[in-house]
């Protein structure tokens, strides 16, 4: 089960923020952060019990999640028009659906 929620010190420059996957963040710290930072980062990185958070913050996060879902649904629906607009406004573009560095650069 993926543990998510608000947490302290997900990143070094923010007191608290939403963590989408606690175990993945721990793995990332262990594999990518300097060895001399890892113990401190892991000791301070803590999920905040939802029961200790204001209800308004929890509701705001739920609203945020719904808004992002709406945005991505609209984005996906608009994609065919966006692709047509791209062909019109960006002629001779090497974009291949994945990258501009497809080997077809002009």
Summarize the entry for a quick read.
This protein is mainly α and about 110 residues long.
Could you give the topology of this structure?
Blueprint: E1 5-8, E2 16-19, H1 22-32, H2 35-44, E3 46-47, H3 55-89
Antiparallel strand pairs: 1-2, 1-3
Explain what the structure shows.
With 106 residues, the chain is mainly alpha-helical. It folds into two domains: 1-53, no CATH class; 54-97, no CATH class. Helices cover 53% and strands 9% of the residues. Strands 2-1-3 form a three-stranded antiparallel sheet. It is flat. The model has no long low-confidence stretch (mean pLDDT 95).
The total number of structural domains is: 2
Strand content: 5-15%
Distance between the termini: 47 Å
Q: How many extended strands?
A: 3
The best one-word shape is: flat
Structural class: mainly alpha
Average pLDDT for all residues: 95
What is the number of helical segments per DSSP (H or I, 4+ residues)? 3
Low-confidence stretches: none
**Biggest sheet: strands side by side, in what order?**
2-1-3
Helical residue percent? 40-55%
Tell me the series of helices and strands, N- to C-terminal.
EEHHEH
Radius of gyration: 20 Å
**How many strands, which pairing sense, and closed or not: the largest β-sheet?**
3 strands, antiparallel
List key phrases describing it.
single chain; 106 residues; mainly alpha; 2 domains; 3-stranded antiparallel β-sheet; 3 helices; 9% strand; flat
